[in-house]
Design goal:
heterodimer, A: mainly alpha, two-stranded antiparallel sheet, globular, B: mainly alpha, ABC transporter involved in vitamin B12 uptake, BtuC
């Protein structure tokens, strides 16, 4: 009962925020939602299935480029929004078939390599606009209605987050979800109890790619511009940081992690832009924060922020009664 | 023919630099089981140090040695973060070294700015069988050869080197005979930093280095190290030389823009072939 009330409260706050925020705060709010969407996928992949991907930004990029190319080609934006996660998932199936034979640090480097190759190809191809990228992407809209206010994009983004969380919740409580947790601990044991290890790993890889693709398509409609420079390797590391900070394998943890890191970096950006600070201050501060938070959480809070907090709460309640 | 020969020698020099970074990865992975993502960072730190020290007017030789030592200190600090706390699993340690690499970005931008920097190396060039080759390239090849001989002697002939090898082959047995495996792990990180620093000092005169050069360096180094399954130095050296020659040939014969894809694609291919020849059970118990 308390959990339901808590969930409703969070949902109400999420819906109320776009009405009260100004445009610059809304931009942060939208980017936060997009990051949360990708991070839920990373958390599912790393926390439940035990597979490390350092290239999740690649699927974000694939989603953004798919939606951008379709929209520029005159296809209705809604079709682009639906196609982006599908294309991202399909490319994950193709890439994952050979790559997911790898484990641990091999997989980490292979996914990183995949993103570097993709960025390099996108920077050289004619149809992706090379290093300059694609510009003047039309606004999102359905039929003759065009989405032009930032608040509308915020609602679209957080509807996406809710969808992604719902899908993840259903997957994680289902039979395949338990199978994923089993194969994360030992693939041999999972295979010998009849779990199709390869197929499940591939499916969860594709699902997390679809989440990233959906986020990427909303990003491209919102900013109206995509280029290889929008998807650096650091963005993939950022998703890992958010997932680890929030707590791997927890759905709410991914959202908490994305919120904590985005707000922290945003706060430091404001500090870094104060008069008297050197010009490099914002980038230095954000690098330092990503790094320190990642190191400290991995070493001292390996289960993440959310599980550590929730474990502390009941014990205090117990002590009082 | 002379163009081919000069590409070959240049490629060998590039491969040697990769080999130094890769051998640092191998030393650290053998002893601690950790894949050190910050290996490219050591090279960047040492390269930037060398350019600063030379810019301050310190003589050649002294500046380079100091820069390499800075690389070793960076290695030791990374080691303290990655394995200093007991019970850190190798995969957690990989993520910690990733964090160290990003933290180094912040430090490097504060100290050296975000523009690429270079350092003067050996000037001039020599002509071998009609092919012109820069003296600095020859220096890279000679230093790498000497380093590999020294490493082989260190691991094969000295007590400390044998203790490190013992940790690599069986950490439990090494602890039983009284070897402090954690201290040996830190030593391995320092040696890894030394090797990375050496690579950085050697390549800074050849191509300018900036704070984010480490991604290219670590990816190439890792690609070479997977040839030797991250444990065998000699195969790693061969892999690095092949990679260096292949990249330089690709650039020389007009496919320069696809250099990175060639290296990365090769690395993924090697890993997949290796994975298909290993059983899951073996990997999960190791």
């Amino acid at each position: 009962m308390r959990r339901l009330a808590g969930g409703l409260l969070v949902a109400a706050a999420t819906l109320a925020l776009p009405a009260v925020l100004d445009d610059s705060a809304l931009a942060v709010y939208i980017l936060l939602g997009l990051a949360a969407m990708v991070t839920v996928g990373v958390s599912l992949l790393m926390g439940y299935a035990g597979q490390v991907s350092l290239g999740q930004g690649a699927f974000y990029a694939i989603g953004a480029y798919t939606a951008a190319l379709l929209a520029l080609g005159g296809v209705p934006p809604l079709a682009g929004l639906i196609a982006a996660p599908l294309v991202a998932a399909a490319s994950a199936l193709v890439i994952g078939t050979p790559l997911l034979r790898l484990r641990g640090h091999h997989l980490a480097f292979a996914t990183l390599a995949m993103q570097l190759i993709l960025l390099s190809v996108a920077g050289q191809m004619e149809f992706t606009g090379g290093d300059i990228g694609l510009q003047a992407i039309p606004q999102f809209g359905i039929g003759s209605w065009e989405m032009s206010s930032a608040a509308a994009y915020a609602y679209l983004t957080w509807a996406g987050v809710a969808l992604v969380m719902l899908v993840t919740y259903n997957v994680s409580t289902s039979r395949p979800g338990r199978a994923l947790r089993a194969l994360a601990t030992s693939e041999t044991a999972a295979a010998s109890s009849g779990i199709p290890v390869g197929r499940y790993k591939l499916a969860v890889f594709a699902l997390s790619a679809a989440f990233a693709g959906l986020a990427g398509s909303i990003y491209c409609f919102y900013t109206g511009y995509v280029a290889p420079g929008s998807f650096p390797v650091l963005i993939s590391i950022q998703y890992i940081v958010m997932a680890v900070v929030g707590g791997l394998g927890t759905i709410w943890g991914a959202v908490v992690g994305a919120t904590a890191i985005t707000l922290l970096v945003q706060g430091l950006n404001i500090v870094g832009a104060l008069p008297g600070m050197p010009t490099y201050a914002p980038s230095v501060l954000s690098y330092a924060v990503y790094a320190l938070v990642l190191i400290l959480v991995v070493l001292f809070l390996p289960q993440g922020l959310l599980p550590a907090l929730t474990r502390r709460l009941p014990s205090r309640v117990r002590a009082r009664s | 023919m002379s163009a081919f020969l000069s590409y070959l020698l240049n490629g060998l020099a590039v491969g040697c630099a990769i080999a130094l970074i890769a051998s640092g990865l191998v030393v650290i992975h053998r002893v601690t089981g950790v894949v050190n993502f910050a290996q490219g960072t050591f090279a960047v730190v040492a390269g930037l140090c060398a350019s600063s020290l030379l810019g301050m007017g310190l003589p050649h030789g002294l500046s380079e040695v100091a820069a390499v030592l800075a690389g070793a200190v960076a290695g030791l600090l990374t080691g303290l973060a990655a394995i200093g706390r007991r019970g850190t699993s190798p995969l957690s340690a990989l993520i910690v070294t990733l964090g160290v690499g990003v933290l180094a970005y912040a430090v490097e931008i504060v100290l050296w700015g975000d523009q690429p920097r270079s350092a003067p190396g050996l000037a001039g060039s020599v002509t071998i069988a009609g092919a012109r080759i820069q003296t600095q390239h020859l220096l890279v090849i000679c230093v790498t050869a000497a380093t590999f001989v020294l490493i082989a002697l260190f691991f094969g002939r000295t007590y400390l080197g044998k203790a490190l090898t013992a940790c690599a082959s069986n950490p439990y047995a090494a602890r039983v005979v009284g070897i402090d495996t954690r201290r040996m792990g830190l030593l391995a990180f320092a040696i890894g930093g030394l090797l990375g620093g050496l690579a950085g000092v050697l390549i800074t005169p050849l191509r300018p280095i900036s704070f984010d050069t480490d991604v290219t360096l670590i990816v190439n180094g890792f690609a070479a190290a997977v040839f030797g399954a991250l444990t065998r130095p000699v195969i790693t050296l061969i892999g690095a030389l092949l990679l260096g020659v292949a990249e330089t040939m690709a650039a020389g014969y007009g496919y320069g823009s696809h250099q990175l894809e060639v290296a990365l694609g090769l690395m993924i291919l090697v890993m997949i072939v290796q994975a298909s020849r290993r059983s899951t059970i073996h990997e999960e118990t190791v």
